Amino acid sequence: MHRLPQDSLAFSFFHATQVVCRVMAGQSLADGLLDRVPDKIRPAVQELVYSCLRQFGRGDFFLARLLHKPLAEAEIHALLLVAISRLELEPEFAHTVVDQAVTASGVLHNGRFKALTNGVLRAFLRQHPQLQAEAGNDVVATYCHPDWWLIRLRAAFPEAWREVAAAGNQRPPMAVRVNRRRADRDSWLAEFQSIQAGALASGKDGVLLEQALPVGRLPGFVEGLVSVQDPGAQRAVDLLAPASGSRVLDACAAPGGKAAHLLERADIDLLALDLKPARCRMIAENLQRLGLQAEIKVANCVRLDEWWDRRFFDAVLADVPCTASGVVRRHPDSKWLRREADIASFSGQQSAILDALWQVVKPGGKLLYATCSVFPEENHVQMARFVDRTPDAVLEHEEQLLPDREHDAFYYCLLEKKP
Question: What's the DSSP call for residue 37?
Fold first, then answer.
């Protein structure tokens, strides 16, 4: 590694290769893979990694045609994927990209694959028009999602599946939620626009940014004036809308964005649950920054005896575990790590959570079921089955937000418990 200058593209290529290689082996970016990258180059490496994984289906399609046989060396395969992604995004820098990728390959496997790396990338540049045409006839290479995923999208959204898939391959929008207990949204927006171009109001508390920024550049972030939250996620509080004085449960609360939004909107008695102590600490830290208070418990929401004191809740938010298929542009590795069988697994968990939490809703109270999935089995189908088996459940409102330039995909279903 000491042979690669730390300010070189080759150095970033090397670290991006390590991350992509681990993802190909089954690890998730959520496991902190990028935390191992030197701070100075982490933004550049993250951009290389995310671009590569968003276009993985396309890059893999190209390599299958450029290599005489599959590579046994996973690091070289990953390096070629990263470099091809970069070549497609910045063809004007093709010479530099090839040169730096070959340089990076020199510190892998004792440099035995420098010639192969050079040959494959130069062949890619020569054959690019033909390869593009061939990719246009392959659904996975075109839409960069696994085949089974695309089949399900097509069945669920016959008129919109192409747009849904395309949105999953784009950079996600960035939005903030203004803490109305500490700031006025329009005043904050005006201040932001005076120092940064490109922002507009979104929803009741949100601001949609034209360009993603580090949180340190958001006015008042440290002081708790704003939080980063997708406009689609902010929709949850609009729908549940608990009145002041209500007893409210956020059953799967980490990292605490929706819990905080509930507390910003009304004076409520909030209990936030999560399975893991570290995630509960994250909730506490977020609430402390925002100047908010809630009771936080480490608990499995399905096991009522562990946490429920037999006092009913006026409102319950069930933001359940799911495939997260609606937020893949934020987590591009999940497209390739997720398996079709995971849908049934999550559906079973969701069903158990619904049956348990319905018991704690008071008669006349409400439960909001939420996912960031686009698969009907986790959304409409799940809720239709629940209502069918639950005589005192009344479906009040249902909506499926699909990903677009303003928000990610979310599903919401608001239920009322008959008095």
Answer: S
On the question of pLDDT at 324 being above 70, the answer is yes
Q: Per the residue annotation, which of 52, 252, 372, 413 is the catalytic one? A: 372
Domain 174-229 indexed as CATH 3.30.70.1170: yes
Q: What is the largest CA-CA distance in the chain?
A: 74
Which has the closest alpha carbon to 363: 390, 397, 398, 393? 393
N- to C-terminal Cα separation, the chain? 68
pLDDT tens per residue, range 240-292? 999 999 999 999 999 999 999 999 999 999 999 999 999 999 999 999 999 99
Q: Token match 């849908």: residue?
A: 343
Domain made up of 230-417: CATH architecture: 3-Layer(aba) Sandwich (3.40)
Helix axes 114-135, 74-89, angle to 10 degrees: 50
pLDDT tens, position by position, 352-402: 999 999 999 999 999 999 999 999 999 999 999 999 999 999 999 999 999
The token pair at 94 is: 């093709």
User: Which amino acid appears at position 328 of this protein?
Assistant: V
Strand partners, 265: none
Q: In terms of DSSP H, where are the helices of 55-138? A: 56-66, 74-89, 94-105, 114-135
Q: At a CB cut-off of 8 Å and minimum separation 6, what does 12 contact?
A: 41, 44, 45, 48
Distance of CA 276 to the CA centre of its chain: 20
239 burial (CB, 10 Å; 0-12 / 13-18 / 19+) is: middle
Alpha-carbon span 124 to 94, nearest angstrom: 11
Find tokens 């190209």 and name the residue.
Answer: 62
Q: At what angle do helices 56-66 and 42-54 cross, to 10 degrees?
A: 70
> What fold, for 9-142?
N-utilizing Substance Protein B Homolog; Chain A (1.10.940)
Please confirm, yes or no, whether 372 is among the known catalytic residues.
yes
CA distance 268 to 408: 28
**Which DSSP helix (H) or strand (E) runs through 47?**
helix 42-54
Report yes or no: 356 and 302 within 8 Å, Cβ to Cβ: yes
